[in-house]
Amino acid sequence: xxxxxxxNVKESGRIDGQPMLFAHGFGCDQHMWRYVAPRFEDRFRVVxxxxxxxxxxxxxxxDPDRYASLAGYADDVLEIxxxxxxxxxxFVGHSVSCMIGVLAAGREPERFAxxxxxxxxxxxxxxxxxxxxxGAADIEELLDSLDSNYLGWSQAMxxxxxxxxxxxxxxxxxxxxxxRTDPDIARRFARVTFLSDNRADLAxxxxxxxxxxxxxxxxxxxxxxxxxxxxxxxxxxxxLEATGHCPNLSAPDQTADAIGAFVRG
Amino acid sequence: MTARSDTEVSGEEAVEAFHxxxxxxxxxxxxxxxxxxxxxxAPDGTIVKANQTFLTLTGYQRDDLIQxxxxxxxxxxxxxxxxxxHYAPMLQMQGSAxxxxxxxxRADGRRLPxxxxxxxxxxxxxxxxxxxxxxxxxxxxxxxxxxLLRAKRQAxxxxxxxxxxxxxxxxxxxxxxxxxxxxLEIAATYRPAGDGSEVGGDFYDIFEIGAGExxxxxxxxxxxxxxxxxxxxxxxxxxxxxxxxxxxPSQALDTLHEVLLRQDTDRFCTAAMLRLCNAGDRWTATVxxxxxxxxxxVRAGGPPVTIGRSGSLLGVLTDTxxxxxxxxxxxxxxxxxYTDGVTEGRSxxxxxxxxxxxxxxxxxxxxxxxxAEGIAHDVLRFQSDDPKDDVAVVALRVPIGPRGSxxxxxxxPGGIET
Lengths: 265, 418
Prior knowledge:
heterodimer, A: seven-stranded mixed sheet, 7 strands, 17% strand, B: 418 residues, alpha+beta, Beta-Lactamase, Phosphatase 2c, domain 1, five-stranded antiparallel sheet, 17 strands, elongated
């Protein structure tokens, strides 16, 4: 199956523009970019997609072996680039997709012009002097949280939740799949996301990189953003006055401005 | 009358007392003493207001929380990740989130399982103003859910173990690989019924019993599952042992029949056995069949014809008859053995049948592999890849040309009487 179908790739903006590829993180889907990506449609070829298992991707294409490490997700990114013949790509990753971007750019550096990492973390679990922010037991607890919440999230319920008219923010294009993943895939993706260690991969990425860090992020604290910035050979960090792990939703203007200054500059 | 008057007065008093209570039940006590915890937080999650029920549930003092803690700060680390990756995005995107299961870390460090509903209020210009969150104690519900999850996992584990057992057992019923036979092409396919979670009753075997002498057996034990598999294994190994001891396939079938009769089982079996003797680039096949579909012989240019004579079911009646038929196989000749899962493969009300099988044989005579795979593929396609019965096919073919004389054992004795 073609990657563009498998990954529910959507394009907007200028077809002749420089490609900007937005990759969402663990939890939700490409709609995470809906307040940010449109800001670049004037000059860029904007490409968004869903990781396999998320959003409206083809869940049948989920192969536990392929996606047992972030390398499988990086392969998908490169396949999308090849299929759409994207060159000189600005890759914008959120959360776990930052490390997916690290792996993709490490594999095919010539394909990427710039990288933007929103709330990155190369390793969520503390280890020796390294502060990731979590202990191994915390991750097990997260898996429990996933299980608890999927109890009430049966397939049959999704359309009911979707059909509620008293939520004007829920745009018509937003689907019931937002933040809803097959429980088995969600567990596996959570494991891959929160148990991966990509610290050693950072030094090999020489592509100019912007790290966007929230001042108050419970998942990827400032020390982690600083670690990523220091470990990448060619990176700078911008601190966003924002709380939480998703400035693309909570502070879209700041986020888009910072990305804009980096990619248009 | 006096009594009634008293009653009326006390009734009025009761109504008055009720209305008085309602008046006291002002907005503040409705809020503070609501039967759920209630939080108001700034868009960044900072707690700006909490009701008494929330404080009682969590053991915090008001001053511990207001303007000091964010809602996410009160959650377990795992819950915090869930909050950031699912809850907050949903709230931002959809304006509300309902029935989210989280754990609050109480002031004394203990965990409080909660179910949480939130709504995000926005300013007219769309800017988020306040998040209102209702918090329900879900301690008992969570315990119940954990039990459900445990039961679900146990069920899944049991199913996986049963499947693994079935597959392990299945592997004992057919050879791990088809052996190489000098001067003869041979191929086999096997597909158990359904999704493979149950052991089928079909078996086949291919083995050497002497220089240039080989036996091919195929059979079908009635029924499925572990009990059938035990009989299937018995059948396979009995035929092996009997083939070594007796020269004629009919004698081997008779032995299996006797063994099944002595076995304390209702299960019976069908089988077809072929003893192959090599002589130069030719082979002699001696066929015996017990209650099984007759093997098909296909010769260059001709249609497939059955070989052998039908014999008794194995393990049913005491009075049985098995016959031996000798067939000379020339270069280019092929023999196909199969189980009834092939011809009785169903699609709607229709059977795959002998006619379709004959066509599939005629269309795949190029090699033994083409025959075995072509027939199985055609049968499975006929059943939309969801066979209701096991499908087993063994095909052999005498190669044409120089390959036929490769590895031939010289002067191997025929030695088989019919």
